[in-house]
Every structure is written in structure tokens, then in C-alpha cells.
Design a protein that fits this description.
The protein is mainly alpha-helical. Helix content is 71%, strand content 0%. The chain folds into two domains: 101 residues, Hypothetical Protein Yqey, Chain: A, domain1 (Orthogonal Bundle), CATH 1.10.1510; 51 residues, Arc Repressor Mutant, subunit A, CATH 1.10.10. Helix 2 packs across helix 3, helix 2 crosses helix 4 and helix 5 crosses helix 7.
């Protein structure tokens, strides 16, 4: 378990563990080190659950991404509640942790990169009509997991098909 179990395909996991090592060596009790320790513990918890369900590799990349997204959402809620209660320093700490966690999430495709991805998918699927939109969206989400915002991608696909 732990760092010895990291496979090359677990890029988010690897990046988190590497960042944790760096943070601990730079400032062992800093916010970055504390936050990454929390993430590592949450990943280990998901690994135990996955192994209990027969997945000997531990949790997958998509599970880690969902975990990070959940942790970001929790911190957004906490920061808002702290703001409403007048606990500004606690809200700032939550936002700092949120920024650290978000740095490990893939960035969404936007602008020209999104248009290129949409054009490639439309071409590969030989899509020409609006009825092909569902297939195109499903293919985009499978090719770029966690990087597609459905609203902007839907507009780009519609534009490419019309």
C-alpha cells in the first residue's frame, strides 16, 4: 500500500504523492503538506474500499478525480459557511486548501482547444446532423474525462454540426 503501489498510469496519484514529498521536505507543517496528507488519506481509504470489492490495483484515476472534486466542493461549502459566521481566517484557510486540491484536477478544455477536440470527434464519427450530438458528446467525455464542461461543449458540438 502507499507509494510502492503507484503505477505509471496513475498520473494524478503520482503527482499528489510527489507534491506531498516536496511539501513535507520544504515545510512539514505547512498548509500544502497538511492538505496533501488529507488527500493521501482519502485516496488510501478509497483504495481499501476498492480492494475490498476485488480491485487489487486500488481505486482508479476517475475515482481519484471524483474524490478531489468532492473535496473541493466540501471546502467551497465550508468557506461560505465560515464567511457567513464571520470566521474570515477559517474561510481563507478553506479557500487555500481548495486551491491546492484544484491544482491536481485536469483543466477543462476551452476555446480553440475545445473546438479542435470537437472537430476531431465530429470528423472521426462522421457526424453531420444534430441527431448525432449525443454520440459526439459521449465520445468527447470518453476521450477527455473530467475535462469537458457539458454546456460549452454542447454549444461547440451544435455549432460544428449545423
Amino acid at each position: 500500500m502507499g507509494q510502492a503501489d503507484v503505477s505509471p498510469s496513475d498520473s494524478i496519484r503520482t503527482r499528489i504523492l510527489d507534491a506531498l514529498q516536496t511539501a513535507v521536505s520544504d515545510e512539514p507543517e505547512g498548509t500544502r503538506a497538511r492538505t496533501l496528507r488529507l488527500v493521501k488519506c482519502a485516496m488510501r481509504d478509497r483504495d481499501v474500499t476498492a480492494r475490498g470489492q476485488g480491485n487489487c490495483e486500488g481505486c482508479e484515476e476517475t475515482d481519484i478525480r471524483k474524490l478531489l472534486e468532492t473535496m473541493v466542493a466540501q471546502r467551497e461549502i465550508s468557506a461560505r459557511e465560515y464567511d457567513e459566521a464571520g470566521r474570515v481566517s477559517d474561510a481563507e484557510r478553506e479557500r487555500e486548501e481548495m486551491d491546492i486540491i484544484q491544482s491536481f484536477l485536469p483543466t477543462a478544455l476551452k476555446g480553440a482547444a475545445l473546438e479542435q477536440a470537437v472537430d476531431k470527434v465530429v470528423e472521426d464519427l462522421d457526424a453531420h446532423k444534430l441527431k448525432d450530438m449525443g454520440r459526439c458528446m459521449a465520445e468527447l467525455q470518453s476521450r477527455y474525462p473530467g475535462r469537458i464542461e457539458t454546456g460549452s461543449a454542447g454549444k461547440a458540438v451544435r455549432k460544428a454540426l449545423v
